[in-house]
Amino acid sequence: MTKREKRQLIYDKFDGKCAYCGCDLNGKFHIDEIEPCRRKQKMIPAHWTNGNPTTENDTSTAFVTSRWVNDGFENPEAFRIENQNPSCASCNINKHSMSLEEFRKLIAGFMKHLNEINTQYKIAKRYGLVSETNEEVKFYFELYEEDRI
Ligand SMILES: [Zn+2]
C-alpha cells in the first residue's frame, strides 16, 4: 500500500470529517495517533561557532556542547492504521501527545476556564447568548460508531 493510499484510508474513516470535533476536513487533515506515539531522544555532542572569540588572537570559535535529537519511537506500532484518525489541525495540535481521556479532560476544562476568567464569555452567558449543556465531551468518532450499531 502506498503512502497516498494509506492516507486516503485514514481520511475516509469518518467520511471526510475530523474524528474528534466532526468538522469537514475538505481534503486537508492531520493524521493523529489515537494512542500517542512517544518519541525517543538522545543526547549527542554538538559543535557550533558563536562568532565571539574570547581573545584578540583567538581564532577558534567552535564550542562543543550537547543537544537532544530524535531517536525513533518507543512504540512504533502506534503508526498502524487502526491507531490513526483523521483530524483537523486544531484538534491534532491540541491533543498533541495526549491519550483520548486526557484530551477529553482538556476540552472539558475549557468551560471551567471560560467561566473563571473570560469576562466576555460570562457576559454573553448572562445575556442568554451562550447556554451550557454540561454534556460529557464526546468525540465525533464515538457518535459515528454509535450510529452504526
Ligand atoms: Zn477537529
What does this protein look like?
The protein folds into 2 domains: 3-38 and 74-148, no CATH class; 39-73, no CATH class. Helices cover 34% and strands 21% of the residues. It has 5 helices and 4 strands. The protein has helices at 3-11, 89-95, 100-117, 119-126, 140-148; strands at residues 30-33, 39-49, 62-73, 84-87. The mean pLDDT is 87. The structure holds zinc ion. Zinc ion binds next to α2.
Briefly characterize the structure:
The chain is 34% helix and 21% strand. By secondary structure, the protein is α+β, with helices and mostly antiparallel strands. The radius of gyration is 23 Å and the shape is flat.
Name its key features.
5 helices; 2 domains; 149 residues; two-stranded antiparallel sheet; alpha+beta; 4 strands; binds zinc ion
- State the separation between the terminal residues, measured CA to CA: 29 Å
Proportion of strand residues? 15-25%
- Please give the order of strands in the largest beta sheet: 1-4
* Sheet/helix structural class: alpha+beta
Low-confidence stretches: none
Q: What is the N-to-C order of secondary-structure elements (H for helix, E for strand)?
A: HEEEEHHHH
Number of helical stretches of at least 4 residues = 5
- Write down the overall mean pLDDT: 87
Round the Cα radius of gyration to an integer and report it. 23 Å
Q: How helical, in percent, are the residues?
A: 25-40%
Overall, the morphology is flat
